From TrEMBL:
One Pfam family in the UniProt entry: NUDIX
Molecular function via GO: hydrolase activity
Residue stretches making up the Nudix hydrolase domain: 43-176
Listed name of the protein: Hydrolase, NUDIX family
InterPro entries with a match to the protein in the record: NUDIX_hydrolase-like_dom_sf, NUDIX_hydrolase_dom
Upper classification of the organism: Bacteria, Pseudomonadati, Bacteroidota, Cytophagia, Cytophagales
Top-rank taxon, per record: Bacteria
Length: 183
């Protein structure tokens, strides 16, 4: 996948969620920026995430992110790689140690544009996060990377209790419950 394929997928992407559809055009516009896939684009850049679920669709794998101190899906920076599916897979493997990861669908599962707070030597900026759904064996041992404080398989019923109010994670959870491709 490259920026042409991503742009085409974004142009076809439809969602019933107003907060998600509000920023699709900004994702499309970003595909034409030569720095879109690099951290050096200080206004914002593409990232890729993996919404990892077990094969029975009862749990999702979340990480307690070391820098942000919040429970999130696994993912990270593209660092110049225009194949965001590969980025999501690579980040999921690196951050979890899982080898049983399978891509459920090569189409975009979810989009989220969110602000990343300022840190030393890094100004506040946006992540244009393209998300894909993966499944994994819930019984495979997890290996916590340096980017995480913890990793945990969370039952769908417990996600809200664990993360609090995070509309983008709640949206992915709802999509998982409703999606026909997952049955």
């Amino acid at each position: 996948m490259d920026r042409t394929i991503l742009k085409s997928q974004l142009e076809r992407y439809r969602t019933p969620y107003e907060e998600e559809s509000a920023f699709i055009d900004s994702f499309i516009d970003l595909t034409s920026d030569p720095l879109a896939y690099k951290r050096e684009r200080l206004e914002g850049h593409f990232t890729a995430s993996a919404w990892i679920v077990n094969r029975r669709r009862t749990h999702t794998l979340l990480t307690l992110h070391r820098k942000l101190g919040r429970w999130l899906q696994l993912g990270g920076h593209a660092d110049g790689d225009e194949n965001l599916i590969e980025v999501a897979m690579k980040e999921a493997k690196e951050e979890s140690g899982l080898t049983s990861l399978d891509l459920v669908d090569s189409t975009i599962f979810d989009l989220d544009k969110h602000i990343i707070p300022e840190r030393p030597h890094v100004p506040e900026h946006y992540h244009f996060d393209v998300r894909y759904i993966l499944e994994a064996d819930i019984n495979e041992p997890l290996h916590i990377s340096d980017e995480s404080i913890s990793l945990a398989w969370i039952t769908f019923d417990s996600v809200v209790d664990m993360i609090g109010y995070n509309p983008s994670i709640l949206r992915m959870l709802e999509k998982t419950s409703k999606s026909e491709i997952l049955l």
